Prior knowledge:
2 domains; 477 residues; 15 helices; alpha/beta; 8-stranded mixed sheet; 2-enoyl-CoA Hydratase, Chain A, domain 1; 22% strand; single chain
Amino acid sequence: MSNTNALSAKARIETLVDENSFVEIGAMITKRSTDFNMQEKSVPADGVITGYGLIQNNPVYIYSQDASAMNGTIGEMHAKKIAHVYELAMKTGVPVIGLIDCAGMRLQESTDALAGFGKIYKVKSDASGIVPQISAVFGNCGGGVAVLAAMSDFTFMEEKNAKLFVNSPNTLDGNYADKLDTASAKFQKTASTVDFVIEGEEEVLNSVRELITILPQNNNETGISDECMDDLNRVVDAFAAEAADPAVALADLGDNNFFLEEKAGYAKEMVTGFICLDGMTVGAVANRTAEFDENGKTVAKYDARLTTAGCEKAAAFVKKCDAFNIPVLTLTNVEGFATTVDEEITIAGAVAKLTNAFAEADVPKVNLITGNAYGSAYVAMNSKHIGADMVFALPDAKVGMMDADVAAKIMYADDKDADVAAKAAEFETQSGTEAAAARGYIDSVIAPESARKQLLFAFEMLFTKSEYPIGKKHGTI
Length: 477
């Protein structure tokens, strides 16, 4: 059950949408089942309120589960109402927002409830890549309902009272809730399903409103926020110092210092999120080597290497951006791949997914090399070699196979008389930005303080980009 201080299902909707804009549909629908004395139980609206409304004048479809009606469990008609909302959303090209507070499947309805779950899975799959899907978890979200949340494009979780789990903590081998509450927001923020963990129901709903305003309505539109009131030529004096922590650097680049980071607690070595440039929504993917606190002090450091979790996080984000025509910016600083036995099991497949995501995306793609760009790890990070439209580099950036000293030691490992230092210096000349620019691999070397202006103008010139890829059903990576 939900916390007694929580908003009701209807109050959540009213907080989410513009005042007096919500229109309920299917209010009279209720259960058909009479098994297990169900005929004696009142289930208003079959435990879910559905309808449509406006968020800052943007139309949305909404369903909000009512934990006061049989714990918000999903039965046959409950599922039918949610599926109907999705069907309408796909016809009209409007986002769907699900406010989740559900104890799972309604056991009294057995196979009818199971069929209802399948129906929701199907319509969510059909809608994927057509309209944005957002889930916000306020109470329980367990078992098959957790899968529903994971099928959304973006999932929010209230920090104190929400619980998200496939298997409850007490059923996990060797675990129990007091030892490690795997259903809690504290745990889930370090996992891959939840994009945003926020304390307070109203705060969650306000964050959903914010996200809706920067996303396109569907896959035929582009994301345009409000008119830009920021200086298009604004100088970013601290960008070079901030580049190690892209969460800080991207906020400095974006209009009015706006940066909405997703999955902030998961795979921290890879930063993903949204900024706006001259009012245009841009998806950002960046390698992180340091984490700064609010005072600019370094609180954590990371290797400049691609990890399995980081690659999969970035690949999924790029695919979402590409599906909804959101341009992609990368800030690249990578020297290779993670070097552990565990990573060796999975890293090749994860890098393949990342490479494919960038190569397959036909939205405008811009890369800014902020540090080192070495080897095939760099190639995978939105390099020109796999389809970036524009590649910029800071003056101190390096592009090449690997660190010059390491390369010289490898090349002359069998030559005892070789001057390894001299050979490293010779190799170094091939790794500077000038050598890469001379071959067209870098379009321009830019001053760090001019990064906002240069990136903004690049995306504006690419706004009308259009590609017609070879027809195929889908890729297999």
